[in-house]
Amino acid sequence: NKSQDSGIAEMEELPVPHNIKISNITCDSFKISWEMDSKSKDRITHYFIDLNKKENKNSNKFKHKDVPTKLVAKAVPLPMTVRGHWFLSPRTEYTVAVQTASKQVDGDYVVSEWSEIIEFCTADYSKVHLTQLLEKAEVIAGRMLKFAVFYRNQHKEYFDYIREHHGNAMQPSVKDNSGSHGSPISGKLEGIFFSCSTEFNTGKPPQDSPYGRYRFEIAAEKLFNPNTNLYFGDFYCMYTAYHYVILVIAPVGSPGDEFCKQRLPQLNSKDNKFLTCTEEDGMLVYHHAQDVILEVIYTDPVDLSLGTVAEITGHQLMSLSTANAKKDPSCKTCNISVGR
């Protein structure tokens, strides 16, 4: 009888974790802690953590789903850091649940009930991750070509609207979700997109554009000069052979400058592999990288009177548009390894 009683006591239920807290969230790690009753606590040898990507209502039901991932971890003091056990994606919603476990002599586990399910979202890329992207982009940037103007293509209606409703000044708008999924500027940074690429044979902007038949051109020094700071924003491709680099130009001390200072690697405007402003014989001279397509975001309003608007003679190449374009996650050139 006594042995039976002790057997029952031995199998007493393990405490169920409750009041789960997630903290110290980065793009590829987090800390987890919880509370549990002290009863039978000393029998706990392991924790089981079940982590899953939160289901997107619009996700393709037939697409391969992430394998449900259950982490078996030795019972360590809480909070416990979860890093490298999964390839956690940045800026992604996850669900997590926990149970306590006791490993038996035969190798099997006695487990508690599952805790409640908690939801959390991983963070954006940090400056450390962006610096890794920056270093990858530097490898393929190529030689520097001279240029003299920044330009922005739009439809005629856009420029008419700016004149009528915004007192002739183009206004910053929130950047879309194109590019790297973990980019801290997507959906957050406000700015105006410009290009500066030139045709190799003419040294002038190309006559084609994906964004509209009307082009605003502005002298490079009006946007990029010693009173602005330059930041690296992103590096990506869209299942294509060519790559894009996003740079941010922010007037010193502006709200855009403060935003970037905290989140993006700053570049030396006179000496970097993508976009430079140097002085020669008292004049400012500008160069851009030849082998990447630069997308330049300027963070302040820009008055149309500072440049010219004219119709382009080329085609509108919609296929080259990067609006909300998804980055190719398998490209070895422009992806970094986070999560391990």
From TrEMBL:
It comes from the Eukaryota. Gene3D superfamilies: Immunoglobulins. GO terms for cellular component: cytoplasm. InterPro entries: FN3_dom, FN3_sf, Ig-like_fold, PHYHIP/PHYHIPL, PHYIP/PHIPL_C. Residues 16-125 form the Fibronectin type-III domain. Transmembrane segments: none annotated. May play a role in the development of the central system. Belongs to the PHYHIP family. This is Phytanoyl-CoA 2-hydroxylase interacting protein like. The gene is PHYHIPL.
